[in-house]
């Protein structure tokens, strides 16, 4: 048996457990910080199009990114952004993801009582006025995500990063796996699902009254990380 020429090359890197993982019992801000560190280079132009009170950014040092913070309350619709085509490195989307925030009467909306902070963060508190043929309830949630996704595709550069926060829900007693629905739909637009993060609540959700539990109560949500795939040039 002949000897190999030269010495074996030592593998690069070090053994460590200091890694970014796919699931955390944590607050959104800490997970979001890891997502940016892993997927978005410092100095990138990041448009948070549902910025709200900036909850995601609490663990991010000022000036680390060129942040463009907008939301509906400041007059900017995430489905109609004031940016040129292919001008943004990263889009962050966190719209209302509960069909209970798309109700026709305010007193029927989700987020009352001890959940009022949730409604304040994810809704303008106003009832939804439906037009004939317009999607309702969970389909209204998906419609917003889909329209925002198409707009993100327009403004993102090639290989740009699209970070989407969502949560599955039970609507009309039917299990709706929102994260699967979004992945499948966004793939049609030209996004590649590069990563998925699961965030488990640090406290237990409760209900005011229950007769019989039928579905597991959701206590986790997702950050989905998509990449805008560059179109192949025709020869």
Provide a descriptive summary of the structure in words.
- This protein is an alpha/beta fold and 235 residues long.
- The chain has one domain (23-206, 213-228): Rossmann fold (3-Layer(aba) Sandwich).
- The protein is built from four helices and nine strands; from the N terminus they run βαβββααβββαββ.
- It has helices at residues 28-39, 116-122, 138-155, 178-189, and strands at 23-25, 45-48, 66-69, 88-93, 156-166, 169-171, 174-176, 191-200, 220-228.
- It has a seven-stranded mixed sheet, sandwiched between helices. Strands 6-7 form a two-stranded antiparallel sheet.
- A hairpin with a 2-residue loop joins strand 6 and strand 7 (174-176).
- Helix 3 (138-155) packs parallel to helix 4.
- The chain is globular.
- Residues 105-119 have low confidence and may be disordered.
- Residues 88-232 form the DNA methylase N-4/N-6 domain.
- One of its GO terms (molecular function) is DNA binding.
- It holds the Pfam family N6_N4_Mtase.
- InterPro entries: DNA_methylase_N4/N6 (IPR002941), SAM-dependent_MTases_sf (IPR029063).
